[in-house]
Amino acid sequence: MEPLPCADGTAVLEGSAAALLATALPLAEAVRPAFWRDPPSASAARQALAHVPDGAKVAATNRLAPHLTDRATVYLHSPGRPDARVDWMVLDTTDTTFSHDPPKATRPGFHQVYAAGSHVVLRRDGAQGRARASGR
Asked: Which top-level group of life is the source organism from (predicted)?
């Protein structure tokens, strides 16, 4: 009978190390049911995104931008640098991904269309197009 490969215990040691590391790494969170539940802010985010009309040019904070790309032209929001290309802004005022300063809930030349929790939708004054009905 031939010995199994790595019969010296290396495979067992490697397998044990992998199992131990998997429980300490972020990937381990994926097996916990709470990982798959929406955070409390998800409903407000969905409602905010629903206000942006299809085909709009919109600046959005990092975590909200991907949810608009299938129906709008999206630019990442840059705090302190207003973007003349956009008529809409969808902001999570707690998102500091690219800046230590969170986005402001108001902006000169824009008016607030929606606000709930940390989510705000702004529309450029005089912009064409209407907000979508909430919940669509």
From this structure: Bacteria
Q: How far apart are CA 57 and CA 21, in angstroms?
A: 44
pLDDT for the residue numbered 136: 46
Q: Which fold has domain 42-124?
A: D-Maltodextrin-Binding Protein; domain 2 (3.40.190)
pLDDT in tens, 84-99: 899 999 999 888 877 7
| E-assigned strand segments in 61-130 | 73-76, 88-92, 110-116, 119-124
Q: Which residues contact 42 (CB under 8 A, 6 or more apart)?
A: none
Sketch the domain layout of the chain as residue ranges.
1-37, 42-124
